[in-house]
Design goal:
3-stranded parallel β-sheet, 3-stranded mixed β-sheet, mainly alpha, 2-enoyl-CoA Hydratase, Chain A, domain 1
């Protein structure tokens, strides 16, 4: 798990944060697990009204990765992030907007075009100053992003070896609810 994260999602999240231009995400369907982390790593998020969001990791007995443990509480608050993660319940695009996870909600099948239009509008602005602003945001709010990603990898490694993860994956593949109490005994 740790090596896989260090070679895939973690570098992607770091790159999204280090690009000194606004990075927009267009979310049309589900953003769960690492996909949620990648979306949250973007500067701005546009979601179709049909989009759904959930943390997802706990449903298969894992801890979050892809900077979800850092970015989610920053965006929606620690209590709300804990509830969202611990219940593993999906939320709608409108709820994500109300919580501050996304910036805009648009009609179904139009998130990409809306994000592209917004990106074109931003590109006509002071892009260098935007990049410096993003750098300042990163330094103020995300100075330990690399360390958090490494720690998430460590936690994934621990969780990935556990009975809860085995039960979660089995339940997912068998299309049934996991029995984590049985896995713990």
């Amino acid at each position: 798990y740790r090596r896989h994260l260090a070679q895939t999602y973690s570098p992607l999240v770091l790159e999204l944060r280090q690009i000194e231009k606004p990075v927009l995400a267009a979310i049309e369907g589900a953003a769960a697990g690492a996909a949620l982390g990648v979306a949250l790593a973007c500067d701005l998020r546009v979601a179709a009204e049909t989009a759904r969001f959930w943390v997802g990791f706990l449903g298969i007995g894992l801890a979050p990765d892809s900077a979800v443990s850092l970015l989610l509480p920053h965006l929606i608050g620690l209590g709300r992030a804990a509830e969202f993660a611990f219940t593993n319940a999906p939320i709608s695009a409108e709820q994500a907007l109300a919580w501050g996870m996304v910036n805009r909600v648009v009609p179904a099948a139009s998130a990409l075009s809306a994000a592209q239009s917004w990106a074109a509008e931003l590109a006509r602005g002071p892009v260098k100053a935007m990049g410096l602003t993003k750098r300042a945001f990163n330094r103020a709010i995300l100075p330990h992003l690399r360390e958090v990603l490494d720690y998430e990898g460590h936690l994934q490694e621990i969780a990935g070896r556990g009975a809860e993860h085995r039960e979660g994956v089995s339940a997912f593949l068998e299309k049934r609810a996991p029995d984590f109490l049985k896995a713990a005994s």
